[in-house]
What does this fold into?
Amino acid sequence: MTAFTDLRPQRVAPGAPILLVDDEQAILDGLSRQLRKKFTVHTATGGAEALELLESEPVAVVVSDMRMPQMNGATFLSKVRTLYPDIVRILLTGQADTQAAITAVNEGQIYRFLTKPCPPEVLLEEIGSAVEVNRLVTVERELLSTTLRRTVEALTTTLSLAQPLAFARAVRITRVVTELAQALQLEDPWEVEVTAMLAQLGAVTLPPTVLEKLDAGRPLDEDERDMAVRVPVVSRDLVAAIPRLETVAAAIGWQTARYDGRGSAAGMPAGEELPLAARMLRLATDYETGISQRSALQDTINALRADAGAYDPRLLDALIGGHEVTELEAPPRMVRVHELEEGMVVFDDILTTEGILLIGHGTVVTDSLIQRLENYSEQGRVDGALRVTG
It folds into this structure.
């Protein structure tokens, strides 16, 4: 209830930060005197100075003059829109120039176009309205972001409970994608990691026997291959229904596309037109499948090299560079169920006493996983000791 209450119109909080931009210092001083009782006022005498200030100061609204040397108001507000889309933009000008107004609106998508001299009460009202628009946009974005992340967490938790083998495989693939993102120094790897985790959602349609074969790297018969081929499509369609995950869904749907385009269906992108997440997912999936099928890591790397056209060369080089020379990892250790901690990694598949798979190897221990194991342990349906790493 409180989250939605925050979206209702409210009075503008005093001290909201605004930025005034004009090449005449006297005008800036006059406007500051009019506005500083209600807002926290920053000033700049040109577009370049204003952009530098915005790098370090949070601002809700920018009010810019149109006619300034080096960079006019339309150009400046266009840059602000690109760099800081949540900042609300107002153009203040003395020019009775219709074309200037059209340019400013088209390039900067301004909130208001005001002519000078602008009565103080009008300017105060318009800036106050702009601050409120900024607040609502910011709250909505944060709400959507939180909702989106929790939706993804709920889906992956459901997958871990419904198909632990598929979830464990998704975790291993995501781990490779994370390593690739680190090698490429991606600033925000969240989207590519979510793509890797959600790409296995369609595995809920697979029978346990098929999942076991996929997890062990054993060959599938024709019917089983047809089932496995449909997994990316099912995953894509499930994810496509979630707002803000359209690009993730597209990447999931194109995860089997080759980088060189060979054998791809008509209309399927190739090369750099393939989303980065799809390129990462293709390589990480083939790598994970390879190490499930082959006893030697180098054999998997050689197989990837032999079919290099399937992969983004930059990603393939990063993966090989990170795995060709590996350090000895710490051996797994035995712990009791009550000793499990979040962040540990399950070393072996965990089965019930009836032989039903509960958790696949490679799964990262979470609080919900611990609770599940404790429940089974109390019933005497799982061994009280298991091997973990980390």
In short: The domain at 2-139 is CATH 3.40.50.2300 (Rossmann fold). The chain has 15 helices and ten strands. The longest strand covers residues 16-21. Residues 1-13 have pLDDT under 50 and may be disordered.
